[in-house]
User: Which sequence fits this backbone?
């Protein structure tokens, strides 16, 4: 996400360590901080989406307990609410890509790509998906809050 998000996360980890009476941040402190950070990021993203379109504030919660990597068909089904409906606005997926909630992972690559890495050129992110060469990925910042399932 943004550099300030890293600082927010580090501040949260330090806060957890201090509240536990420690002078150093432990792995357990980082894990605990991640839970709160993830919830904060999810709420923040929901509010940002609400500012764009108040009807879509709850759309992020449809990804609760899903795998972190999803095909285009799976994302379409999640957003449609049913496996059989194909009437998901392409705009909604575009918004989730633009805001960085979803990224793209090409099948022959280890790294994920998010909109901020391609100067918010969402069409550049969509191209490998359209060719069947990539899947969507939920940004790791949201995994704890959404309780994503291991792959």
Assistant:
């Amino acid at each position: 996400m943004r550099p300030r998000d890293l600082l927010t996360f580090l501040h949260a980890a330090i806060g957890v360590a201090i509240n536990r009476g420690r002078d150093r941040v432990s792995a357990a402190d980082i894990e605990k901080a991640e839970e709160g950070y993830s919830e904060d990021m999810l709420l923040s993203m929901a509010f940002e989406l609400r500012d764009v379109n108040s009807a879509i504030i709850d759309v992020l919660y449809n990804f609760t307990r899903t795998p972190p990597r999803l095909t285009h068909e799976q994302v379409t089904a999640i957003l449609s609410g049913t496996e059989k409906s194909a009437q998901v606005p392409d705009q909604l997926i575009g918004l989730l890509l633009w805001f960085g909630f979803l990224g793209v992972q090409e099948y022959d690559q280890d790294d994920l790509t998010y909109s901020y890495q391609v100067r918010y050129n969402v069409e550049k992110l969509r191209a490998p998906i359209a060719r069947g060469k990539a899947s969507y990925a939920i940004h790791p910042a949201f995994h704890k809050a959404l309780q994503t399932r291991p792959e």
About this structure: The longest strand covers residues 102-106. Residues 26 and 121 are 38 Å apart (CA to CA).
